[in-house]
């Protein structure tokens, strides 16, 4: 993929692709059974997406991931955030 592709994504979403890649790299060796790590990832994804995640929703997402019910990825978190906001 080329820079033009990523620039188009940035323009459409307002999300800085460099930050997305930095976050993705930081997740490679992260311990997703650690609540603090998972909370940090949720907060970072919310910040990148320019969304607020209420404490109650954050708690549900954290418990779901830490307990192994959900895998930690952008789609999982986005889907959980969208369910709550509907």
TrEMBL record:
InterPro entries: SpoVIF (IPR025942). It comes from the Bacteria. This is Uncharacterized protein YpuA (DUF1002 family). The lineage of its organism: Bacteria, Bacillati, Bacillota, Bacilli, Bacillales.
